[in-house]
Design goal:
Blueprint: H1 3-14, H2 18-21, E1 30-32, E2 39-41, H3 42-86, H4 94-106, E3 110-115, H5 125-132, E4 138-141, E5 160-166, E6 176-182, H6 195-208
Antiparallel strand pairs: 1-2, 3-6, 4-5, 5-6
Length: 216
């Protein structure tokens, strides 16, 4: 660096607002482009940087728009399931209606519902205890699930699952379990947002509780 260059550098360091107060000088300052090696003015570099930022923001807006559309579709499906369950007059029909609605609205490959008081209940006491011990629903890889007995008999074993313990209010004892399964390991990955699943769980518990209190 020449003595003159050092003097210019020292001056700019001592007067950091010089270019702000004298913006016209920016058009005469040249900087090398990192990608091409060509020389561009600082003004051109700033314009290019702003364009890149705008493009990045546009992509982010597109992502947020897609997410909003997907969330609205999920909300619509949850509302549709709730309306369907509210129109069921005979409580005995609720399990079949719920399973059918979930399969159609969310296109879930495997939907299994087991209530402990059913005569054909195939869930053993040890698995019921594991489900009782679940404080929240499980969403993740099949190999890490508390139990997979709900999916016994499926032709294709699920690789990712959701297990929803069914209970009335804050009761520590469950009266059944609702499960979703998929051969796709990423369909119900541990990173999946579970807000809508929790809403669906509350809806299912409220509806199916009618079978536990026939007189209510």
């Amino acid at each position: 660096m020449t003595d003159e260059a050092v003097q210019v550098a020292d001056f700019l360091k001592a007067h950091p607002d010089f270019l702000i107060k004298n913006p016209g000088i920016l058009a005469f300052i040249k900087l090398p482009e990192q990608s091409t090696g060509n020389v561009a003015s600082l003004h051109e570099r700033q314009v290019q940087t702003m364009r890149e930022k705008v493009k990045s923001l546009e992509l982010r807006v597109v992502e947020l728009t897609h997410a909003a559309v997907e969330n609205q579709a999920i909300i619509g499906n949850l509302q549709a399931i709730t309306r369907t369950l509210l129109t069921v007059k005979d409580a005995i029909d609720l399990p079949a209606v719920l399973v059918d609605a979930i399969q159609k609205k969310f296109v879930v490959p495997i939907v299994r519902l087991q209530l402990w008081n059913e005569s054909d209940c195939s869930i053993g006491d040890s698995d019921k205890s594991r489900i009782d011990d679940m404080k929240n629903l499980y969403c993740g890889f099949a190999e890490n699930a508390p139990t997979l007995s709900l999916f016994d008999g499926e032709q294709v074993a699920p690789r990712s699952v959701v297990l929803i313990p069914l209970r009335i209010g804050a009761s520590p004892v469950t009266f059944g379990c609702l499960g979703f399964g998929s051969p796709d390991k990423d369909r119900f990955s541990p990173t999946l947002e579970t807000d809508f699943l929790n809403t669906l769980a509350e809806t299912a518990c409220a509806a199916l509780s009618r079978l536990q209190n026939p007189q209510s």
